[in-house]
Design brief:
Elements (H helix, E strand, L loop, with lengths): L22 H35 L3 H29 L1 H20 L4 H29 L3 H32 L4 H4 L1 H15 L13 H24 L3 H23 L13 H31 L4 H26 L4 H23 L4 H29 L5 H34 L8 H9 L1 H9 L3 H40 L7
Helix pairs in contact: 1-4, 1-5, 1-7, 2-3, 2-4, 2-8, 2-14, 3-4, 3-7, 4-5, 4-14, 5-11, 5-13, 8-9, 8-14, 10-13, 10-14, 10-17, 11-13, 12-13, 12-17, 14-17, 15-16, 16-17
Length: 515
């Protein structure tokens, strides 16, 4: 590790209108975008490799779920811990440790000979990944002390997330067409090597000057709260209400309460619970959470509609989503000058009106009229989400003291992860439930094919392909009609969720400053 003595440590409270950075600061932002792009690509690329992984490693059904879930479960459980560790030991140091570990474990995951070793690798990727994201956002706070520049930097940071999400399906499709499944993990190595070289030269170290003592019990409580809650949400989504999910949820809530109690009693807490008493902080966190729920839930059912109903290939479906991601990026950048003049409690709800309109467009046209309405709807949705997330992320950082930027960033990232899980669990679970309830099987469908069709739209596609042309066609028509009805109801619920985010912003962000 390169020594940090030659670069000043940033820990002073950052003024609202601090000094402006030059070319070196913007070059540092480019370096910080590397892990952002990587993590956002990684969120979507694995799903494209699962069929080949299943053929190569022959995982059981449970192992296949753990290949997907090991990473987000560990990541969500450790984000707050790693954010506070960055405040204590240095955010640049945590970024470099995370990048080194992530690159090394990615190389191991690419050659994993068994499903068990791949699951272990995914869990380790979650461990090191939790060091990356809070560090990038908190370092932005220390580098960009001028608020106008910080708004633009956060807009670019959020744009990197959107760009990575758009690139994921395209990169995944390309790699799997030309290489084996391991290539989706190896892509991390050439991205992180420049980070390891340039970060010590361009990124200043920053930390909390008075971190207090290390509190292992608080760390254990935070992990014991997050991991069971995320696991319970996933279990509810796939199996419905069940004793295991209820037990895990109850355990997570109890441990969360113990964590909060310990923080309130500590002289120097691991996470300052007083932050949540600030309307601009807690409101921005909720806006972030609900925005990600809306975005991920939308992508969940639209990707199925594009690939299964409209028969687009993975890369074609990925390209169909690019205009929406581009709209999200442009909106996130364009809202920066507007935010200097319009207060957040007005601007965020106004932006989210676009996202409500996107969902309503799908509800009334998207399920029946081909690709174009879905592309337009996603672009309109993206305008609202991109604008709202840029403003809310900046408010989260501005509301927290500079020496607690890592912990604040970790809370923001945890909201992202929970939003992603809840988006699939709530909206994905709803559309599955409505699909099953609306599916009317044609007479003569064998029991095995009927059972597969009643599980998912993909199951119906496979089942229809195994039947005669007339019976298979009838089954597929019934399945797409049921899925379409589910899309309508789920889109209306998605619109209501976005509207609730707008209402929360209007109420909680009234005292947030514009400058």
């Amino acid at each position: 590790m390169t020594p940090t003595a030659s670069i000043p440590t940033v820990h002073d409270d950052i003024a609202v209108d601090g000094p402006r950075v030059g070319a070196r600061g913007w070059a540092a932002l480019v370096v910080l975008m590397l892990p952002v792009l990587l993590v956002s690509v990684d969120n979507t690329v694995l799903s494209f490799a699962l069929p080949e992984i299943s053929i190569a490693l022959s995982p059981s059904g449970a192992e296949q779920l753990w290949i997907i879930d090991a990473y987000p479960l560990v990541l969500a459980g450790l984000l707050v811990t790693m954010g506070t560790m960055g405040d204590r030991f240095g955010r640049r140091r945590m970024l470099l440790i995370g990048a080194t570990g992530f690159a090394a474990v990615s190389a191991l995951a690419a050659i994993a000979p068994t499903a068990g070793l791949l699951i272990a690798s995914r869990a380790l990727l979650g461990f090191f990944g939790a060091m990356l994201m809070p560090s990038t956002l908190s370092l932005l706070r220390s580098i960009f002390q001028n608020r106008d520049q910080r708004r633009m930097a956060i807009a670019i940071w959020a744009a990197g997330f959107s760009a990575g999400s758009a690139l994921g399906p395209i990169v995944g499709g390309f790699l799997l067409e030309h290489y084996t499944w391991g290539a989706v993990f190896l892509v991390a190595v050439p991205v992180l090597i420049p980070l390891l070289i340039l970060a010590p030269m361009l990124l200043p170290e920053s930390r909390d000057p008075n971190p207090g003592r290390l509190d292992p019990l608080s760390i254990l409580c935070s992990m014991a709260a997050m991991i069971p809650v995320v696991s319970a949400i996933k279990s509810f989504a796939t199996e419905g209400p069940n004793p295991n999910a209820l037990t895990w949820a109850a355990f997570g809530v109890i441990m969360g309460a113990l964590f909060v109690r310990r923080q309130l009693r500590a002289e120097i807490p691991m996470l300052d619970m007083g932050l949540f008493r600030q309307g601009s902080f807690s409101g921005a966190i909720l806006v972030n959470l609900l925005s990600v729920v809306a975005l991920v839930g939308f992508l969940y059912f639209v990707s199925q509609h594009l690939q299964l109903v409209l028969r687009l290939g993975p890369m074609q479906a990925g390209f169909a989503l690019v205009p929406g991601m581009a709209a999200m990026i442009v909106a996130g950048l364009a809202v920066v000058p507007i935010s200097r003049r319009v207060r957040p409690h007005v601007l965020v709800p106004a932006a989210l009106v676009f996202s409500v309109a996107g969902y309503l467009l799908v509800a009334f046209t998207g399920a029946e009229h081909g690709v174009a309405p879905l592309i337009i709807a996603f672009a309109v949705l993206g305008i609202g989400i991109g604008s709202a997330e840029t403003i809310s992320n900046e408010l989260i950082l501005s509301s927290a003291p500079a020496d607690k930027a890592g912990a604040a960033s970790a809370v923001s990232e945890t909201a992202y992860e929970l939003g992603a899980v809840l988006g699939t669990a709530i909206l994905g679970g709803l559309i599955t439930a409505f699909y099953r309830g609306a599916l009317v099987l044609p007479a003569g469908v064998p029991d095995e094919a009927a059972a597969a069709a009643q599980e998912t739209l993909a199951g119906a596609y496979t089942a229809a392909s195994s039947l005669s042309e007339s019976l298979g066609g009838a089954l597929w028509h019934a399945a797409t009609a049921a899925f379409g009805s589910g899309v309508v109801v789920t889109s209306l619920i998605g619109a209501a969720l976005v509207a609730s985010a707008g209402f929360i912003a209007a109420v909680t962000l009234r005292k947030a400053p514009t400058h």
